[in-house]
Design goal:
Length: about 140
């Protein structure tokens, strides 16, 4: 199986980009999302996150705030500024205990914030709220 792309056949139109340098977390998240029928793309650093978002046009991005090759803040800013990616909802993930971080990333354009370890049920519920209803209904 290729590391950067895990395809699912249940909802092939629904693709999630996970941008995190922690291989255990990306394996956990990609497995959970794939089991719910999402196609998953994995980026290991901030530069890959932006590049893969432009190339793959995912339905949502899960973005770690602390990554190599730039920060999650920088990647979020680039994603919001690009005409090709500005409409993609971005959710920030962090293990930081900074209580202002959720408000900061929302002010930067993130649609939500998840503290690590990520609550998978809450994450999936939030994704289902935001993803296009036409794409969800076509998978039934």
């Amino acid at each position: 199986m290729r590391d950067f792309l895990h395809e699912s056949f249940l909802m092939p139109d629904l693709k999630i980009l996970i941008a995190d340098d922690d291989p255990v977390l990306t394996a956990t998240l990609s497995g959970a999302l794939a089991s719910r029928g999402y196609a998953v793309v994995i980026a290991r650093d901030a530069m890959q996150a932006f590049m893969f978002a432009v190339q793959q046009q995912p339905n949502a991005v899960l973005l770690d705030i602390n990554m190599p090759a730039g920060t999650g803040h920088g990647a979020l800013t680039r994603l919001q500024a690009s005409a090709r990616t500005s409409s993609i909802p971005v959710f920030v993930m962090s293990g930081s205990t900074d209580l202002t971080l959720p408000a900061t990333v929302r002010a930067e354009g993130a649609k939500g914030f998840f503290r690590k370890p990520v609550d998978l049920d809450a994450l999936c519920a939030r994704l289902e709220e935001l993803l296009p209803s036409a794409a969800r209904s076509s998978s039934s």
